Amino acid sequence: MGMIDKNIKHEVIIEEGKTTIAGQRAMLLSVKTIATQQKELERLVGEKWGHVVYEAERKAIQEAALQIFGLKQLDSFTKGKTFDKKSMVDTLIGIFNCAGYGVLKLKKFDEAKPYVLVTMEKSTIPQEYEKRDSPVCFRVAGILAGGAEAVFMVPMKCKEKKCMSMGDSHCEFEITRR
């Protein structure tokens, strides 16, 4: 598991009627439930299903990541301030790796561009699909884009370059400026 900043509340807390992960309210869903929801969305809306899932996760995670780091929003409040962006990325990867999607590993990091390349092993969602010609990890891509937006303080996008659903041995995501 990646290093998690000890100053950030990251543990999982399960109380009656309430689950919290990294200080954020959460629900525990099975991978089968998430994959079934994705497949049903694809059946109902066609090819745009991935964009819907991606954007929902990107927006939600951007807000959650900003809260984790004690920031308000991407605005003048954060402009001009310096943050250890590599540490922030490592923290988000550590939290992500506790969430059950798979194991993210940082392969490249360039703060100046900004650019991030990560791989994900043991990816859970693609394992629920038959072999396909296109990736299925739009939820993860949205999570990564939203987290990157909180770290780099600029609009970011994430593209899945490899996916286990396409027969690759792991998933790979490239995160760049939008």
What is the strand and helix layout of this fold?
Elements: E1 12-15, E2 18-21, E3 24-26, H1 31-45, H2 49-68, H3 85-96, E4 103-110, E5 115-121, H4 138-152, E6 156-162, E7 171-177
Antiparallel strand pairs: 1-2, 2-3, 4-5, 5-7, 6-7
Helix pairs in contact: 2-4, 3-4
What do these coordinates show?
The strands form 2 sheets. Strands 4-5-7-6 form a 4-stranded antiparallel beta sheet. A 3-stranded antiparallel beta sheet has the order 1-2-3, with no helix packed on it. It has 4 helices and 7 strands. The chain is an alpha+beta fold and 178 residues long. The protein has a single domain (12-177), classed as Muramoyl-pentapeptide Carboxypeptidase, domain 2 (2-Layer Sandwich), CATH 3.30.1380.20. The model is unreliable at 1-9 (pLDDT under 50). 32% of the residues are buried. The longest helix has 20 residues, at 49-68.
